[in-house]
Amino acid sequence: MMRGIVSAFATILCAVLLVVTPVPAGATESILLWDEGVGWGAPPDSMHFIAGFRGMMAAVDFETPASTDFLVAVMVFVAETPESGGPSRRSAATESLKIHVWSPENPDYPSPGEDAVVPVVVQGGYPQHEWVRFDLPTPVDLDDANLFPERLFSVGVEWLVRKNPRIGFDAVGAVDLHSWKFPWYPPWEVCDEYDLMMRAVVSDSVDTVIRPVSWGAIKSEFR
Ligand SMILES: [Ca+2]
Hints:
Number of helices: 1
Bound molecules: calcium ion
């Protein structure tokens, strides 16, 4: 475990956080992501999937760029969800999922700590095998130094239904050691063999337009 932590720290020093602004100049949103190996196109054959039992969680940590102050959405690559009860070509509908935003464990270590805001439940039935954007009910102020010391935060999911949905991960290229998984009990375990396919959408303004409810952008509700 200690070796893993030391390795994580070493990699944090050299890992590169990608900041992608896919919208035209003048817009305020950026997408934070690590090396998931998939770019903006279709996922590669190397993509795999994870799924947890009820109550399990998975997270990715980020550092807010100085130019952005608000977290407005979380993006998750939702993988195909097999029918329960045995092999089948059919896919079950996606089940509800809880979205979390965490403060860092401490200012010197980015693993998820306490919930920074009330977790959000998104209703099932959202698409599969694509990036799904879950808009938060209100932007989260990442400039709050009490909640996000050193501008560190994590986003992620908690499973409400066993093994539904599955979430993509990438095990090629760099493994950035910013993905965290499955705490039966603290501490979180860093993923040292893959990068979870979860992203943070940040903005420099609270004026960010929350997209209309659609299959591509799910408006979440605090629960
Ligand atoms: Ca990777």
